[in-house]
Amino acid sequence: MGKLLPGGGAILSLIVMSASSVLAADLPSLKEAPAPAPPPIAGGWVFEATLDGWAPSPIANVGVRRLPTVSSDVGFFTLLRHLNGVVPLTLTAKNENFILGLDLYWSAVSAGAHIPASNTALGPYGGLGANLRLSETFLTGFGGVRLPTQGSDLSVYAIAGARFVDLTATLGLDAAIPGIGVSGSQTKDWADPIVGLAAHYTLNDKWFLTGEADIGGVANSATWQTFAAVGYNWSQSVALTVGFRALYVDYTEAVKQNGSFRLQQTLLGPQLTVSYLF
Q1: Cα–Cα distance between 74 and 81 in angstroms, integer?
Q2: What is the per-residue pLDDT for 166?
Q3: Please, which pLDDT band fits residue 273 given cuts at 50, 70 and 90?
Q4: Could you give the percent of the chain with pLDDT greater than 70?
Q5: Nearest alpha-carbon partner for 193 in 227, 166, 225, 222
Q6: What is the DSSP string of 119-130?
Q7: How far is it, in rounded angstroms, from Cα 249 to Cα 265?
Q8: Is residue 230 scored above 80 in pLDDT?
Q9: Contact, 188 vs 253, CB < 8 A?
Q10: In angstroms, rounded to a whole number, what is the distance separating the alpha carbons of residues 164 and 180?
Q11: DSSP characters for 195-212?
Q12: What is the pLDDT of residue 116?
């Protein structure tokens, strides 16, 4: 009764192996499931809306109508006392090959100014104090194409566009000067073509570097801008950056019967941004 038929051992082994295979097939796999891929963005485009916390120190030389040119320099730590309002906003869209951008910055600043005493061409006006208010809008639009680079972590775009400037300058002298008015206001707007580069470098899944630089102008105006920052991806949709930004504009109007408009200004200071990607 306990004897196996010839070949029975082989048959028993085959039955045991088959049963083991069936049980193994029914058990769940111990391999870790792959992480789900992020949902694709329609058309391959990534859109980004950014609130720019830029607090620039304005360094300006401004001349209005027949009034002499005055100089004003508001330091970063005293800016809030002179700032009347600010609206900073940036919108960008990019994919693997192209980038589009629109940057808006409006501010109103009131500050003390002076006529440089060292400017001998101003004669008796040199050293006189003044009050200056600048209300200005900078609107920069650009488009660009991605340049070939080594590796996928670095993206560099060649950009071209225009910067539109609308500025109202109100100037009041502290004392009456014979032959000229003691106050004046003038509004000017113009646009400068620009060219430049925009870059983004991914350090890892959280940290990145970003920057942009452009330059442009025409016969009677000039402009340039530069920005560099380190960024952190707070989530898939929210990113923060901390960096430094500088913007320069220069405009000179031909002298007319009622005088001319002269502006040479640099805005520079730290910038904190919060971006929403969608």
Answers
A1: 10
A2: 96
A3: very high
A4: 75
A5: 222
A6: -GGGGGGTT-EE
A7: 5
A8: yes
A9: yes
A10: 31
A11: EEEEEEEE-SSSEEEEEE
A12: 65
Residue 135 one-letter amino acid: S
Q: Residues 261, 254: contact at Cβ < 8 Å?
A: no
CA–CA dist 194, 144 (Å, integer): 12
| Helix %, strand %, coil % of the chain (to 5) | 15, 60, 25
Instruction: Identify whether the C-beta of residue 65 lies closer than 8 Å to the C-beta of residue 259.
Output: yes
Q: Which residue has the tokens 């006006």?
A: 125
Do the Cβ atoms of 226 and 269 come closer than 8 Å? Answer: no
Best CA proximity match to 277, nearest among 170, 200, 191, 175 = 200
**Rounded to the nearest 10 degrees, how much is the dihedral formed by the CA atoms of 249, 255, 258, 260?**
10
Percent of the chain having pLDDT more than 90?
Answer: 48
Show the tokens assigned to 21.
Answer: 């295979």
The separation between the first and the last C-alpha atoms of the chain, rounded to the nearest angstrom, is: 77
